[in-house]
Amino acid sequence: MQNIVPWIGVCAAVLTSLSYIPQVRKAWPRGSTADLSLQMLIALTAGLLLWIGYGLLKSDWVIVAANSVGAILSGSVLIFKVRDMRSGK
Question: Are 70 and 20 a contacting pair, CB within 8 Å?
Fold first, then answer.
C-alpha cells in the first residue's frame, strides 16, 4: 500500500495542475476573462505560491512541481485578467 501513496499524489497533482489549461486557452487569445474574479485569481495564485514554499520546506517534489505548474497557469490567467481590465474588456 505504501508504494501507491506517492502515485496517488502524482495523479492528483497532474489533474489539478492541468485543470487550469482550459482557462488559459480561453483567456489568452480571446481576452475572455470578464467572468473571472480578480480577487479569486489573486488568492489562488498567492495560495499556490505558498504551497510551493511549503513543498520546498518539506522537500516534497510533488507538491513543488504540481503547484509550480498551477501557479504559472493561474498567474497567466491573472495577467490576462489585468491586461483585459486595462484595455477595457
Answer: yes
Q: What is the pLDDT of residues 43-58, one digit of tens each?
A: 999 999 999 999 999 9
Contact 8, 57 (CB under 8 A): no
CB 18 within 8 A of CB 71: no
Q: What is the mean pLDDT of residues 64-79?
A: 92
